[in-house]
Design a protein that fits this description.
alpha+beta, four-stranded antiparallel sheet, globular
């Protein structure tokens, strides 16, 4: 089981449903309504902020797709990069 699956298991079903919707939006790069910033020091890595959650993802501009790299709470997420 990877880190993302472990994190999702700890959440309530409502929170899990919300995060899965965000993952779908990232995958299709429909992220205009979210707070997204590029990560300094990393090429092609971005963070999406939703409350205390942070979702780190990479963009593939050629194929117009996003890939979730990591998800977690604000205090923990940047330590794993």
């Amino acid at each position: 089981m990877n880190k993302i699956e472990k994190f999702l298991k700890k959440l309530t079903s409502r929170e899990r449903h919300l995060l899965l919707k965000i993952f779908t939006d990232i995958k299709s790069l429909h992220i205009g309504s979210y707070d997204v910033k590029a990560l300094k020091g990393y090429k092609n890595l971005y963070r999406l902020r939703k409350g205390d959650w942070r979702i780190i993802f990479a963009k593939d501009e050629r194929n117009r797709r996003g890939l979730v790299v990591n998800v977690g709470y604000r205090k923990d997420i940047y330590q794993d990069l």
